């Protein structure tokens, strides 16, 4: 958020009583004014300044990938981030999981009438700062307003465009028995942070979301092991949904080791208290990497050089046994099937 | 909509009492099931079937453009379309206005808990049909669910990716005095159709939205006159907002001729009754083209060969006089300034 203050001369003054009105979504002068006051100062970049509905990007050297993600998180502000930074990180990560270098983001806002303009500016500032830190411009956007009671503050749908370097072929069809399963860090931080905030729970220390952009770490991983098989970010549904999706209906299974999976002490305590399983909880700054076993240690070394991967570990292997299932050696030495939940534990977690 | 029936074997059966639940947005099995039953059959295309969060596109031959648009229209279904076809057409048109050939769409859904699954399928079918007719795949998507009373049925944010052929340089910086202003057809159809539907008004005949994809017509226009200066679709704010945006703060003005601007009789009657001005009303299947005066007739001939441009006409010129303003010679021979409304006449029109 410090970057709000980097351009003090351009910072517009928003009065605390100013609210979003239906006319801010009308596409006329009021919309232009909202963009000029709230979005333009924080998103400033040459693409956006083209001032079209459509933004022109660089001519890409490689294959183009695209990913889109709606963000409806509640509450909008939480320890470790807000809907704005989350929307940037989440979509950058989806693009990065395709092995791609993100080159641009778009942002579509659906805002509820009556939403405080100061809160919208806080979100825009956080989005702009996240995009600048990531080195990826918000190239174009859109603003709609719905009547009070027909939305919930603000929803943000971000789309990311990326370029996949030649030679990188990542995808679930690349999975094979014997490959290693790596995890970039602790599980459950995002989900537990949101739940604590939502329910006003205290666990001694404030649990912060792990919301972070992973594309720089991914770029180094892809450079170190261009043949890596698969990258996934365990968001909604957590690690269990991510791993189950990969093997369901295939002739492969995944075996993981509970003792190897890092979970912060306070997150584990919160999960125990609330009856939640960290394997099912959404993360917003973690990735799972599946690679040849011989690439595991070199990739872990690369990951650990990045703050987002400092606690990276190998948690298991792809197997030919028990195809279609994820099984886990538990901390006490037994084995259990890691289930894929049919619903969700935490609604509106992202 | 006829294309729903093109793949009868793949059509899932949705019971009339089935409703969207919070778990459909959880990212687990229920989300996967919703996608399998509702979206996959209607959006079917090789990109979507890659089954990633991220879709890989062709290697583009040209510069990439991107555009995004949220759709919050109310009501969801209206004469001439629904939110699904509108979301496809609207974003294809934004991409086309950059002079680009659209190559892929993404779709992010924010659905209200309790929304009828059958209505969601109707929307998915209409989106899928619109995308197939346009020849542009829905490459990837996202589904979120919010609690009852925190949304309004469904909001759809679509993003379009396009490729601009080399040699095409379209943009407001290309405007110059003496250029012609062309309009592809009648004004006001979309806005008046929505308003009539919303308010249960009858005007003798049903007024239908003009919602349509314009990219094929644009491709022919760009091929015929690669040097055309600018394309814009007069959506929210109508023709008046579109033209005012172009000249505001510049050293150019625009002069248009009211008698040349086509408005359907029933739309004109409705506007008169409701105290609306067709110049301010949103259109969803029209474009404004600004080009060298000598290209005007050849471009009109190209436009008139397409159903979307059958009523294309020249409505005015870019001028050096009265810079920053749009002025109109009225049907009775006077002159008036065409204002840019500060709010909007019709909320949630797109």
UniProtKB/TrEMBL annotation, chains A, B:
<comment type="similarity">
    <text>Belongs to the HypE family.</text>
</comment>
<dbReference type="Pfam" id="PF00586">
    <property type="entry name" value="AIRS"/>
</dbReference>
<protein>
    <submittedName>
        <fullName>Hydrogenase expression/formation protein HypE</fullName>
    </submittedName>
</protein>
<dbReference type="InterPro" id="IPR010918">
    <property type="entry name" value="PurM-like_C_dom"/>
</dbReference>
<dbReference type="InterPro" id="IPR011854">
    <property type="entry name" value="HypE"/>
</dbReference>
<feature type="region of interest" description="Disordered">
    <location>
        <begin position="1"/>
        <end position="27"/>
    </location>
</feature>
<dbReference type="InterPro" id="IPR036921">
    <property type="entry name" value="PurM-like_N_sf"/>
</dbReference>
<dbReference type="Pfam" id="PF02769">
    <property type="entry name" value="AIRS_C"/>
</dbReference>
<feature type="compositionally biased region" description="Basic and acidic residues">
    <location>
        <begin position="1"/>
        <end position="21"/>
    </location>
</feature>
<feature type="domain" description="PurM-like N-terminal">
    <location>
        <begin position="59"/>
        <end position="164"/>
    </location>
</feature>
<dbReference type="InterPro" id="IPR016188">
    <property type="entry name" value="PurM-like_N"/>
</dbReference>
<dbReference type="InterPro" id="IPR036676">
    <property type="entry name" value="PurM-like_C_sf"/>
</dbReference>
<feature type="domain" description="PurM-like C-terminal">
    <location>
        <begin position="177"/>
        <end position="326"/>
    </location>
</feature>
């Amino acid at each position: 958020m410090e970057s709000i203050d980097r351009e003090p001369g351009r910072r517009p003054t928003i009065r605390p009583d100013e609210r979003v009105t239906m006319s801010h979504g009308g596409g006329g002068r009021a919309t232009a004014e909202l963009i000029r006051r709230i979005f333009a100062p924080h998103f400033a970049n040459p693409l956006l300044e083209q001032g079209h509905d459509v933004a022109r990007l660089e001519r890409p050297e490689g294959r183009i990938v695209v990913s889109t993600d709606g963000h409806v998180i509640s509450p909008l502000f939480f320890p470790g981030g807000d809907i704005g930074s989350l929307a940037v990180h989440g979509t950058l990560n989806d693009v990065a999981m395709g092995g791609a270098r993100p080159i641009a983001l778009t942002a579509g806002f659906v805002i509820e009438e009556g939403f405080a303009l100061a809160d919208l500016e806080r979100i825009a500032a956080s989005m702009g700062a996240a995009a600048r830190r990531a080195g990826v411009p918000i190239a174009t956007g859109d603003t709609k307003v719905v009547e009070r009671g027909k939305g919930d503050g603000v929803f943000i749908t971000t789309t990311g465009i990326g370029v996949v370097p030649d030679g990188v072929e990542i995808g679930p069809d690349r999975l094979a028995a014997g490959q290693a399963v790596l995890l970039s860090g602790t599980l459950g931080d995002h989900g537990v942070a949101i739940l604590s905030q939502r329910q006003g729970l205290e666990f001694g220390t404030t649990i912060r979301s792990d919301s972070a952009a992973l594309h720089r770490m991914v770029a180094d991983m892809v450079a170190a092991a261009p043949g890596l098989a698969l990258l996934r970010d365990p968001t909604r549904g957590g690690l269990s949904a991510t791993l189950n999706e990969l093997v369901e209906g295939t002739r492969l299974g995944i075996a993981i080791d509970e003792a190897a999976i890092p979970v912060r002490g306070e997150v584990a305590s919160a999960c125990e208290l609330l009856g939640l399983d960290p394997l099912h909880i959404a993360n917003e700054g973690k990735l799972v990497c599946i690679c040849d076993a011989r690439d595991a240690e070199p990739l872990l070394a690369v990951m650990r050089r990045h703050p987002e991967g400092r606690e990276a570990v190998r948690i298991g292997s792809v197997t030919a046994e028990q195809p279609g299932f994820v099984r886990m050696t538990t901390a006490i030495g037994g084995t259990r099937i890691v289930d894929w939940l049919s619903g969700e534990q935490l609604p509106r977690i992202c």
